[in-house]
Design goal:
Blueprint: E1 4-9, H1 13-27, E2 32-36, H2 39-51, E3 55-62, H3 70-80, E4 85-90, H4 95-105, E5 107-112, H5 117-129
Parallel strand pairs: 1-2, 1-3, 3-4, 4-5
Length: 131
Amino acid sequence: MNEVAILCVDDETVILESLQEQISRHFGEQFMYEAAESAEEALEIIEELNQEGVKIVVIVSDWLMPGMRGDELLVKVHQQFGDITTIMLTGQADEKAIERAKREANLYCCIHKPWRKEELLKIITTALESV
């Protein structure tokens, strides 16, 4: 089992599966890959992995989700785990939410839907180089 993980968060199953497939195909067995369909589920996964000693290095999160929005999730994550690189994926985030995430969650990048696979992978690769 790998000791580092990438977490994808999106309330749309098809998007979540697509993200995971693209990322895992590119990075192979370098990482564990986790998925959450809500911010609340993501927080549970983060806590479980932390207890197991697995370090999450990147979170790719949607912005508009039921319950807790992506910027709120990333702020919470940053407050607890400041070394996780956060990437927001959105088709609808307003500029205030993006600015808040940059300010309060050290947002690495915001990618707009529909994303290009090459752009997503380049951003994650670059983010991992700076870890």
